Amino acid sequence: MSKLNSDRDFFFSQTGFLSGLALRGKLLSVIMIVSSCSMLLASSVFIFYQWYAFRQFLAEELISQAEIIADNTEVSLAFNDPKDAQDVMESLGTRDSIMLACLYSSNGNQFAAWSRDTAMAMCPAYSSESGYSFENKTLLVRRKVTMGDQIIGTIVIQSDLRELNPFVNNSIVVSILMLLIAGAIAFVLSARLQALISGPILYLAGLAEDVSRERDYSKRAAIQGNDEIGQLADGLNNMLARIEKRELQLRKSEKQLRAIIDNTSSLVYLKDLQGNYLMVNQRFADLFNVDVNDIQTWKEQDIFSAEEIKIFKENDLAVIRHEKLMEFEEQVSQAGGVHTYISVKFPLYDENAQPYALCGISTDITDRIEAAGEMRQLRNYLSNIIDSMPSVLVGIDPGGQITQWNKQAEKISGISFYEARGRMLTDIMPGLVNEMDKIKQAVRERRVITDNRMTNKKEEEIRYTDMTIYPLIANGVEGAVILLDDVTERVRIEEMMVQTEKMMSVGGLAAGMAHEINNPLGIMMQSAQNISRRVSPDIAANVKAAEDCGTSVDTIHAYLKKRMILDFIEDIRKAGARAAAIVANMLQFSRRSDSMKQNADITELLDKTLELAASDYDLKKKYDFRHIKIIREYEPDLPKIPMFVTEIEQVILNLLKNAAQAIAESEGNEEPLIVLRVRRERKEQLIRVEIEDNGIGMVENIRKRIFEPFFTTKPVGTGTGLGLSVSFMIITNNHQGKINVESTPGRGSRFIINLPLAADMEEKNE
Amino acid sequence: MNDKIALLIVDDEECLVRNLAAYFEDEGFKIFTAHSGEEALAVMAENKIDAAIVDLRLPGINGNEVIEQSHARGNKVKFLIHTGSTDYKLPESFSAFGLTGNYVFLKPVVDMARLKSAVLQLLAE
Ligand SMILES: Nc1ncnc2c1ncn2[C@@H]1O[C@H](COP(=O)(O)OP(=O)(O)OP(=O)(O)O)[C@@H](O)[C@H]1O
Ligand SMILES: [Mg+2]
Fold first, then answer.
1. B51-54 and B6-10 strand pairing
2. CB of B57 within 8 Å of any CB in chain A?
3. pTM higher than 0.90
4. CATH code of A478's domain
5. Contact by Cβ (8 Å): A330, A311
6. Using a CB-CB distance cutoff of 8 angstroms, which residues of chain A are in contact with residue B23?
7. Domain total of chain A
8. Is A522 on the interface with B (CB under 8 A)?
9. Whose Cα sits closest to atom 19 in ligand 1?
10. Packing angle between helix A565-588 and helix A488-534, nearest 10 degrees?
11. Chain B contact present for A529, CB below 8 A
12. For a 10 Å CB count at each end of chain B, is N or C smaller?
């Protein structure tokens, strides 16, 4: 078998000697080889047979010759006449091929002999056998010579085979001729006939080539028949049909895939291990303005910066090295700024499970990052707002458990969010027990409910709280947010404003009546002054008038003094002055806008007012600036500020007097001290003036009320209680500033005034 | 007695005029009085007046007009304003006659010495 195989292989294998030939040549060669071989074999047999038959013929001819000689030499032998035998045998010379003839007697002795070439003559050994044999390219015939039944001798004739050779040669020539003729006919015929077989095969081969070249799987072989070629054609057609179907499916699924790849919002690309792009999707091409079909026409460097390429390469290498899907955040600067992508990259394997390429899918997450950033910012912003709001903010779920608890809530309650979370609101804020119904109502009716001015007593003091309940209805979050504002301060201020309002209407009234009151007041006090003067011995006219009346000024004076008339007059004057001061102060409550503000140096004004206060010391009112140490802390180079100078002077004077009075009241004050501070608050664009004393200070309940009109702790007649309320009016209303106070009982007070800088001053500072 | 300062006191309130007159007489001034603007202008026309303390709200022409007309007539009288109107606004033009805010007095003037020093200061200018 193996031998057969190897033979077949030799002929038909792709490397055998026929392999180089086309099918037609192969067929022709096969036919020629086969026919040549069979003809060669036939002619060989033919030649051999010719040769053999001719030899037989030669032998029989020689035998008959020998018989003739035997007959003719019978007598010679019988009469023992060798001469006669010799003559008979001489006749053999007529035949060229006979070389030797020998006659033996029956006893085996040579009786007579003839040879063509005497020199060579050599009779073979005697044998009584008869027959023929071929020896040494000669034919040897033995024949018994008989007389009756008695054998009397033996004749031997030797002949060469010269007649055989031409005959054989002729046969060979004929054979060759036949061979050639037959070969030619076979060639011509087979050359024609092989097309019967090779034609369809070549057609199929051509079809196969066409199909593979044109990739047109719709072609079909047009051959029918039940032979193997017909089957082959059928098989090919079936195969083509199947391939066509597969191809269609493949193309469809490829189209689908391509559509998906091209229409995804992500960038999809394939790169080989050297980093060359093998494929990119439409989106990639559109974004970077490259040709999606002609990958070779552009380079990575055309699209990305060296820095970007370096990072991509590192990431790609990591994927190849770890042979697994990996995710990276990659940044690409493109039209519209730097964008951030989340890139999923994974290796692609060939059929030997070796990675040959890398696929990347990059999704632009810039917006998402921004949105997340904004979200985070918003959340921080919101929690900042919630935490920095001065209100208590509490979130509760529908069951009344705390879910939100801001900084102010922590501060007011002293309970941290951590502790408060999950606990019942009513446990932590028992004051709200009565409000639970309202909270439930707000959640149920989905509306905001407010409850203003809830009162509660804290350390013997009434505090006011505003409560607002916001039901949570958005996004399925249930519950409520409760906002609690301590409005005590505001309520007080409002109350004060009401009073101020009242005072202003009083002021308006006062302004209208001032003329009518001031005139009589003037008359009253000037009359009092004239009375004092005209009873005084110091004025010459008095002396004369007294003498005219028969008395002396001194007497009159002594009398008036004795009867305390002078004191009464002084009382009239003082009462008048007080009334005048009240009217003047009340006038402060009336709004005025006529006179112009002037730019003035506040520190200069402070110093001037301090001088004024010091010269105005009043032992009766129990203050004395001479014993008070004054410390000035003025920031240098302060800008001037617009103000009504006399009004600010009045404010400062009152503050200084109050301070001096507070110091006077603090018994055992070793080191009476007033500190005057002025500095500029650049951020708020204002000048801050502080007047600080180390007097008796104020308890909270007094501190809260000092700006109220007519609130005073001083004995009747000493203070009107208008000083600070007028100051408040002047600072807040007339100067758009602020005035407030910090105080510790027993240690002192600090009044703080903020006055805004001029508008143009602000601009200059910017 | 020729060097006495001639002072005109103008006010519709008799008591006020009397008080101021008494004070300034005692202080050695020569006093003229008027109870209306028209009267004041007449007094100034007939006498040589050095200074005048003028109320604003007067029957007839008011204090401002008295001052204006007096100056319009070429009188060299120096004026002080003594008024009960808290919202009085000094006309800018008066500064030309040396009449500034320093010489505006709101009633009541508790110590008339202030008026006297102001008159002296005004005349010294
Ligand atoms: N520096 C201070 N130290 C302590 N208490 C002060 C100080 N300043 C003001 N007060 C308190 O504020 C009250 C109100 O002061 P305000 O200046 O309004 O009126 P007054 O000083 O009593 O009267 P007036 O100012 O009319 O003479 C004072 O009676 C005093 O009790
Ligand atoms: Mg005071």
1. parallel
2. yes
3. no
4. 3.30.450.20
5. yes
6. 526, 529-530, 533
7. 5
8. yes
9. A721
10. 140
11. yes
12. N
Q: Which of B55, B58, B87 to mutate to test the interface with A (most CBs of A within 10 A)?
A: B87
Q: Which residue type is seen at A348?
A: L
User: Which ipTM was obtained for this model?
Assistant: 0.92
Return the bridge partners of B9, or none: B33, B53
What tens digit of pLDDT does each residue of B38-87 get? Answer: 999 999 999 999 999 999 889 889 999 999 999 888 888 999 999 887 77
Query: Which residue in A506, A513, A526 has the most chain B C-beta atoms within 10 A of its own C-beta, making it the best mutation to test that interface?
Result: A526
What would the two tokens of residue B116 be? 């006297």
CB A613 within 8 A of CB A625: yes
**Domain annotation covers residue A287:** yes
Residues in chain B within 8 Å Cβ distance of A514: 84-86
Q: State the pLDDT confidence band at A669, using cuts at 50, 70 and 90.
A: confident
* Ligand 2 geometric centre to CA of A449 (Å): 44
Q: How close A654 comes to chain B (CA, Å)? A: 20
Q: Please indicate whether, in this complex, the C-beta atoms of A527 and B107 are within 8 angstroms of each other.
A: no
Beta strands, E only, A550-638? 598-600, 629-634
- Where does the pLDDT of residue A4 fall: very low under 50, low under 70, confident under 90, or very high at 90 and above? very low
What range defines the domain where residue A350 resides?
264-371
- The Cα A154–Cα A143 span in angstroms is 6
Dihedral over Cα of A704, A707, A709, A713: its sign: positive
* Statement to judge: residues A325 and A297 lie in one domain: yes
Contact A515 B84 (CB under 8 A): yes
Q: Is residue A10 part of a domain?
A: no
On whether residue A294 sits in a domain, the answer given is yes
Predicted confidence (pLDDT) at residue A7 exceeds the cutoff of 60: no
Residue A141 bridge partners (DSSP): A132, A157
Residue A523 touches partner B, C-beta closer than 8 Å = yes
Mean pLDDT of A180-189: 88
Quick check: A133 and A140 in contact, CB under 8 A? yes
Same domain, A710 and A596: yes
- Supply φ then ψ for residue B99, to 5 degrees: -95, 100
pLDDT in tens, A36-69: 898 889 888 988 898 888 888 888 888 888 888 8
Asked if residue A155 and residue A80 are part of one domain, the reply reads yes
Residue A5 scores a pLDDT above 70: no
CA distance A512 to chain B (A): 9
Ligand 2 ion local residues (Cβ < 5 A): A 654, 658, 723
Asked if A644 has any chain B CB less than 8 Å from its own CB, the reply is: no
Residue nearest ligand 1's atom 25 by CA = A723
Question: What length is written for chain B?
Answer: 125
